[in-house]
Amino acid sequence: MTKTAIIQAQQRWEYMFLTRRSELALQDELNAVGQQGWELVAVEYYKDAKGIMGWIAFLKRPCAGPKPTGSGGEGHTQQTTGPESHHTPTLSPDDVFDIKESG
Q: Percent of the chain beyond pLDDT 90?
């Protein structure tokens, strides 16, 4: 008897960071990108090389596009503006594989 199992690849993510000087500016920007599907992962209050204090926010959202090419150690950063359409992830041949047992 042959069994076939379909296993989907692990969720892929895209990442973005924002830097702002004030809490209100950061909050406004986070509200805007939140409507585009970005999720806040972490935020930090920091001092830059010039000694100026500011906020940096790290965000992520599910990647609906094709698998990134490259050596694998590269991150994907994107800042989007304006309305964005809803993307439904589709499976590519690389996202699914079969396991077959003979028995």
A: 49
User: Mean of the pLDDT values across residues 19-30?
Assistant: 96
Residue 59, exposed/middle/buried by CB under 10 A (0-12, 13-18, 19+)? Answer: buried
Separation between Cα atoms, residue 93 and residue 84, nearest integer Å: 26
Structure tokens at 101: 């047992």
CB atoms within 10 A of CB 16: 19
Q: Are 57 and 40 a contacting pair, CB within 8 Å?
A: yes
How many other β-carbons are positioned within 10 Å of the β-carbon of residue 38?
A: 22
Q: Which residue's structure tokens are 């986070």?
A: 30
What's the pLDDT score for residue 68?
Answer: 59
The whole-model pTM stands at 0.56
Q: State the Cα angle at 91 between 88 and 97, rounded to 5°.
A: 155
